[in-house]
Amino acid sequence: MRREWLVKYRGDKTQCDVAAHCNIHRGHYSLIETGDRTPSVAVAKRIANYLGFDWTLFFEHNCVESKQMPA
């Protein structure tokens, strides 16, 4: 399932920007964004730190969009 909340957090940054900052390949980041891959805890923390959200959102199975995005 596509992580629309992650796309919203990414905002104007490109997938390449996020991947480069987090020291992962752009293709790997793309798979995380599309929901085809779940990041390791270390990668989740780097992405979350860069984009400004709680890294545990990657591991919440039944979370809703309103919980993931600040008001």
Automatic annotation (TrEMBL):
Top-level division of the source organism's lineage: Bacteria
> Can you give the residue ranges of the HTH cro/C1-type domain?
14-58
Q: Which Pfam families match?
A: HTH_3 (PF01381)
**Name of the molecule in the record:** Helix-turn-helix domain-containing protein
**Upper lineage:** Bacteria, Bacillati, Bacillota, Bacilli, Bacillales
